[in-house]
Amino acid sequence: MTNRRQDILDAALPIFVEKGYIGTTIADIRKASGATTGSIYHFFSGKPGLAIALWKDANALWISRAEARRQSRTPKEMVTTTVRGLMEWATANRNLFLFFEELRIRAHSDPELRPILDEIILTHEAAAEIYRVWVAQGQVRDIEWPIASALIVGPAYDYLRKCGHMSDHSVAIDMLVENAWNSVIRDTN
Question: pTM of the full predicted structure?
């Protein structure tokens, strides 16, 4: 027995990537998935619901990739596994990453995608609190979270947006993971 919900999501992703969120219609997804319009609306509240489901799946895959590598919860382990998890997931799932990025940006201006923005805000608030604890413990640089976050994941995001033509990402992943930690580790000199 097939999972109709997943079949619809699987058919929708390449269309969203090709046409973008705005250019994609329910009719496009219906045609690609073979599902009826009623079936699509049974599982999702329209195009925003489909997009949010894909975004949540992508975010869960990134988190599970990071958690699978994590052996402890030290600041270094948390930073490096987060970046490595992002990069391994995104390079293995390029189309999903590209759509994830479009939605991450669009969520700031599209009220229908508010659940994505809410999740982003909650994640950043939790990460900021963890970072403040590390600062208080003297384990990382005393810089504001938005700067630390940009230093940790910003270079990885930039690479991932530009690396579509590359087939081997291992050196880049290692370098950017090391850079992420080195950018926030407290200078002990």
Answer: 0.87
